[in-house]
Amino acid sequence: MGLMDFFTGRAPAPFASPDPAIAREQMLASLLVMAWVVEARDPYTGGHLWRVSRYAALLCERSGIAMQQCARIAIGGFLHDLGKVGIPDAILRKADKLTDAEYAVIKTHPEVGARMLAGHPLAELVRDAVLLHHETPDGRGYPGGMAGTDIPVSARVVGLSDAFDAMTSTRPYRVGMPVGQALEVIESQLGRQFDDTLGRHFLALGQEGLLDHIAGHSDDGIPLQRCLMCDSTLVIRREQRAGDALFCRNCGGGYRLESGHEDEVLKAVPTGALGSAADLQPVADTELIQRFVRDTVREAFATTPAV
Q1: Which of 84, 177, 243, 294 could crosslink 181 through cysteines, CB 3.0-4.6 Å?
Q2: pLDDT of residue 282
Q3: How much is the pTM?
Q4: SS (H, E, C) the chain
Q5: What residues of the chain score a pLDDT lower than 70?
Q6: What is the pLDDT of residue 149?
């Protein structure tokens, strides 16, 4: 029984495989699917988890972090916002800036995520990234006000990657910054909001253009597109083809995917249709998740005893 059986429902139970390696893949996949569905609640952050994970992986590699730890940090990047499942839609999907009270609710998501992981066999793999990614070197972060190198490296990497993606992503109340401008912000906050050494490695990646294929994308080679009616993100999955229907999960507006004339990127063309309840259900990108699991799990568990 392989990973595909887990997604298609042929397995009698998610973690039923007697093969420890497959069981680990299934356990990780279950967390990634959960994280994906949590992200899908916010129509303006499409691809955020993938991007943060990719930035984190690049930063780890550039920083000389051991490959096994790099893989684990990449997984933490994908799962860091798990706790946003506990944030009410009225706050998570708010089109204006948050009030102080609403922001206080948002700030609970690291601890909610850590509680969700409690008792999970893979919790220790990603707990620091989930719980501590909003801690900052100057001690002004949350939830614990940790400072400097007391903050685990996984949290420092994911926190920087998360902040960069937030700055370069468009929200209802502001347009995303260009990559260069976001890098300038990071440079100005080295040693305060961002780890100095990791931040300088991240700046080097940006200056070499190695972040450009991730910013504004939801998968390798798949740029985000925007809904013409409400400006939320339209996320196209790799397995989709020209002629497929796509619906905005914010306003329900319908689109048809068409081949681009100058490249192979599919274009979302409005049809005037409105999506049904079934059309607007959040659906995890299982192909992307399977690729992610395949590319990271063996490295992440290279010396870990069987669970």
Answers
A1: 177
A2: 84
A3: 0.90
A4: CCHHHHHHCCCCCCCCCCCHHHHHHHHHHHHHHHHHHHHHCCCCCCCHHHHHHHHHHHHHHHHCCCHHHHHHHHHHHHHCCHHHHHCCHHHHCCCCCCCHHHHHHHCCHHHHHHHHHCCCCCHHHHHHHHHHCCCCCCCCCCCCCCCHHHCCHHHHHHHHHHHHHHHHCCECCECCCCHHHHHHHHHHCECCCECHHHHHHHHHHHHCCCCCCCCCEEECCEECEECCCCCCEECCCCCCCCCCEEECCCCCEEEEEEECCCCCCEEEEEEEEECCCCCCCCCCCHHHHHHHHHHHHHHHCCCCCCC
A5: 1-18, 261-263, 303-307
A6: 95
